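agent> Task received from the user: take the single chain below, predict its 3D structure, and emit structure tokens. No templates, no multimer pairing.
agent> Plan: (1) validate residues, (2) run structure prediction, (3) serialize to tokens, (4) report one or two observations.
agent> Step 1 OK, no nonstandard residues flagged.
tool_call: predict_structure(input=
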Amino acid sequence: MSKFNKARLIAAFEELGTQLNNPNEQLLAVINDERHYNAWFTPESVLQAVTAIGKMLNRQQLSTWLNKYPVENKPGKRVGLILAGNIPLVGFHDVLCVLASGNHALIKASSQDTRLIKCVLEMLTAIDSSFADQFSFVERLEKFDAVIATGSNNTSRYFDYYFGKVPNIIRKNRNSVALLTGNESGEELNALGHDIFDYYGLGCRNVSKLLVPEGYNFNFFFESIESYQPIINHHKYNNNYDYNKSIYLVNSDKHFDNGFLLLKEDERLASPLAVLYYGYYKDIPSAQTWLEAESDKIQCIVNGAHLQLKTQVVDFGMSQQPALWDYADGIDTMEFLTKL
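)
tool_result: status=success, residues=340
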């Protein structure tokens, strides 16, 4: 990228953020068309993802973020990116980091999310054409100097095998947890609904498990999230709800059911779609001990008390609104890329 400097980066990314926050007709058409390719990518979900990135790309955040790293004009490395496709534009932050660090992104997009990422990068190159030389979409990764790959626990073994000889970040399955005390307000619990239901619960930052004090009464929780009831009208979500409900009924598994969400006590962290696991804790220190022990499986923790933990802690309703420096799995992607 010619004349590579932070001021130019910030100006270009800020303008992209402005355009994402105010989608033109062409972007709105892409947003509305996604449901025809991926039924989970409803116009509401895609617009939410687009504007979440738009809010992230503001001058203050960009300046604070980029000033932490030695961004300089040097020959860039070729960084292979294997992007996930579970929620709209989930791989954008990795692409952004590669561009901001002056490297070249070899993008292996997910079949579930190819059009959106291409559209956003076309918008960026229209703002500053020099970015066009910094990325390419590929069907197969070849001739790379480093790799960032996001997948499942199963695919991570293959990633380790194929990419273990070059600098890499390989991500596995993660989920998020909410730690409740029983003193939450109705507003806080309603905001927690965003952490549970945004993107239909498909993201690693979605809450899949509640930690609650012994004797917790779920009635107020159910009352507080009633506004999310329309989610059951999505046919794929509804299918998951019906399927899991039928299994619990056939097996006589104890569970709670409010008509659009199933709650089940379970030691595991990752719950099926339309199901929220929960577990009891004796006191806050014991809950913290459990969270620390499971930290390598947790993306973020939703809690209003801002506990000091190794894992990122966010306010109710904020799990799907990360800042630029809220890195997946707690690994500083920009530090990795600027040291290549």
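agent> Step 4: summary for the user.
The first helix runs from residue 6 to 21.
agent> Done.
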